[in-house]
Structures are given as C-alpha cells and as structure tokens.
Design brief:
This protein is α/β, with parallel strands linked by helices. The protein contains 15 helices and 15 strands.
Length: about 400
C-alpha cells in the first residue's frame, strides 16, 4: 500500500460503526491518497510520500454542521432586543419581522455581497475543524433570489464540503397569496432546482406561523416527484405531527423537535430519519420544552447536533459550543454529542463518505490538542484545533 500522506502517532476517534462507541484506536494512523482515506486504524506497513507525526494528538473526522442558514443579508439584533423586552417570536413574525425581516435585505443584496458575508460566517466554523456544512436558502422567497442564494451556497465549495438545501417553504412572501406561492414552489421552483442541480434536498418550516402539514405534504410530493430528498423543520413551537410527516416521506432529517410526541419518535425510528437537535435556537428563544431525547433513545433514533446558524433565532457560530449546549440543556452524553457532529450528522445529509474515519471515506480530518474527546464537549469558549485537513476531491 502506498499513500500520499500518512498521519502517525495519533489517537483516533474513528466514529466507525464497526467499532464500539466512538471507535477509538489508541495507537493509530490515517493514510491518505487522492483525497480519500486508504487506512484508518492500527499501524500497518504503508509507504508514503509525506509522514506527519501527530505526537499523540487526537484525530476525529472533520466536523459536520448539518443545519445552517449561512446565506442572508442584514441582521436581526433589534428583534433580539425586542425579545429581551418581552416580545414573543410569533408576535415578531406576525408583525412582519422574523424571516420576512431578512427577506428584503437578502433580495436586495448582490450575489457577491451574499458570498462575502457567508464566507465570514463560515470562517468561524472552519476554524473549529468543520469540513462539511449544509447550507439552506430560504431568505429570498422568490425564484430569482432563491436561485441566487443556492448558487452562492454552491460557490462556497472552494473552502468546504457543501450540501445545499432549498428552503423556499420557509415563509410566505407578502406579494403572493398562500395558494399562489405554494403553486410557484411546487410547479416552477422545485422543478427548476432539480433540473439544474442547485439543491441536494428540499426543506420546509412546518408550524402555525409558517406552512401547515397539508401544505408541506404538497411541497414534499413535488420534491419526491423530481427526485429530491426532503427534510423538515418540525415540532419546534407546537406538535403539528411534523416528525410523523417527515417520516412518511422518508426524510433525511427532522429538525428542532421540541414538541415531538412518542408516536413521532417511533415514526422517525421506523423511517431511519435523523433527529437534528438545535440547542442554539432553544437557548436564544429561551424555550422551556426540550426535545424528547429519552424517547429518541428508546426507539433508537439517531441524533445529530447543529448550530442552526441564522440571523434571528440562532446566531451561533460555534459547533463546539453547540455540543456543550446539547449536553447541558438536552442531557446528551459526550458520545451522543460527538457522533451528532460526525457520523449522525452525515446521515442527516444522506452522506456515507464523510463523518467517519475508514477506508474509502473522504479525508476530512480534525486534529486536536486534547487529552480526551470529552474536552470537545466539556469546555466553553475553548478551541483546541491543531489542524484541519480538508480534501476538495
């Protein structure tokens, strides 16, 4: 076996399901060739052009932020202040703020301006060892601005592994009726996006202030017809049985899930849909009802953790902090948190080639100055990243 580069004298948290827990290899090596992992495990005879001595450092897969809204213009600091003064999220949204408050600025921004802003936000994630990022549209709510946002998201692939998601069903634009916009989504926008390969999946916000379950069913039916996978913002503010709806369509993920019922958890498990937990939004909105983590455990639902980076309800630029919040607020274990930003986050994107250290996977690595993996979850405001390895191949 010959490699371009081999990392030796490392401790590995492979996240490989063939190994128990985090898939730890105490004396491990990772060999790389053509952007892929040739070997990740105990030392073996491998010739390499370059040998990197990790000096006992830990290597994990590059981290995955599987739910972000990176593409937007402006900010909503004023709404944050209003909420501190007692105004509710739903009241802000119904008064034309929230998603619609960001819509105008995003529509007016050029693609260059959107890209520059997104690059700045993304830099904070990359500095913490993130190598794969899901990027949603959803702040344009018109064909041209949604296509613009998705194109900008794809252009970020020169710095990270990007999965794009069409979130046109994020809210209703004021210039169209609900029926008109729903028709536009299903008959024009989704087919256009599918043909041009602008998105890997279709998402929606199923809530009383957004799309009803019946409306989301129409969107998902259109997405499925055009060969696009689906995911859903579900059960965040109320139980509209969003988890069950996501499961019905074999969704990659259902996200938020604070109000998901036992039946909803069982449906997710049966469908293999990943539950994406978003503690940043829970914290920012000062919610009190946590996602039903115990139900997810009972039914064997895989749980991912993400920043939900967005301008209104989760201005969170740290996946490391998101893990700490998931542990402290939702009582996830260290193992659940770390799997939640690697292997399970990859599953939420329909990916098997990232989030794990094993032969054939992309060589996306995070090398850490830590004594044990728990430090990545335990410390607050701490970034022990030694080196980020990312392959564009």
């Amino acid at each position: 076996m010959r490699a371009e580069r081999i990392f030796i004298n490392a401790r590995l948290a492979t996240m490989d399901p063939a190994r128990p827990g985090l898939g730890v290899v105490e004396d491990g090596v990772v060999a790389q060739a053509n952007g892929r992992i040739l070997h990740a495990g105990p030392p073996r005879a491998i010739e390499a052009d370059e040998v990197v001595d990790c000096q006992g450092r830990w290597i994990t897969p590059g981290l995955i932020d599987c739910h972000t809204h990176l593409i937007y213009a402006g900010d909503r600091a004023g709404e944050f202040e209003a909420r501190l003064n007692g105004v509710g999220y739903e009241e802000i949204a119904r008064a034309g703020g929230g998603i619609l408050g960001t819509m105008k600025a995003t529509r007016e921004a050029s693609a260059g301006a959107l890209r520059a802003a997104a690059q700045g936000r993304m830099a904070a994630l990359l500095a913490e060892g993130v190598t794969t990022i899901e990027v949603k549209s959803g702040y344009g709510l018109s064909p041209d601005s949604e296509y613009k946002s998705l194109a900008v998201a794809k252009s970020l692939g020169d710095r990270a592994d990007i999965s794009t998601t069409f979130l046109g069903a994020h809210g209703f634009p004021p210039e169209l009726s609900r029926a008109e916009y729903l028709r536009l989504l299903c008959e024009d926008m989704i087919p256009h996006i599918a043909v041009r390969g602008l998105a890997d999946a279709v998402d929606g916000f199923c809530e009383g202030i957004a799309f009803s379950p019946e409306e989301m069913e129409q969107v998902f039916t259109a997405a499925t017809r055009h060969g696009l996978r689906v995911k859903l913002h579900a059960d965040q503010l109320s139980d509209l049985h969003g988890a069950a709806l996501a499961a019905k369509f074999g969704a990659l993920s259902a996200d938020h899930l604070e109000y998901t019922s036992e039946a909803g958890a069982a449906a997710l498990a049966k469908a293999g849909t990943v539950a994406v937990l978003l503690p940043g939004a829970f914290f920012t909105l000062r919610e009190t009802q946590s996602p039903p983590v115990e139900a997810f455990r009972r039914h064997g639902v895989r749980m991912a953790v993400s920043t939900d980076l967005n301008p209104g309800t989760s201005p969170l630029f740290s996946l490391l902090l998101a893990m700490n919040m998931a542990a402290t607020q939702f009582r996830l274990t260290v193992e659940e948190c770390l799997l939640g930003v690697t292997r399970h986050a990859a599953a939420a994107l329909g990916r098997a080639d990232v989030g794990v250290l094993r032969a054939g996977a992309k060589c996306h690595l995070a090398i850490w100055n830590i004594e044990r993996p728990a430090e990545l979850v335990y410390r607050i405001g701490f970034n022990p990243l030694h080196q980020r390895i990312w392959s564009a191949v």
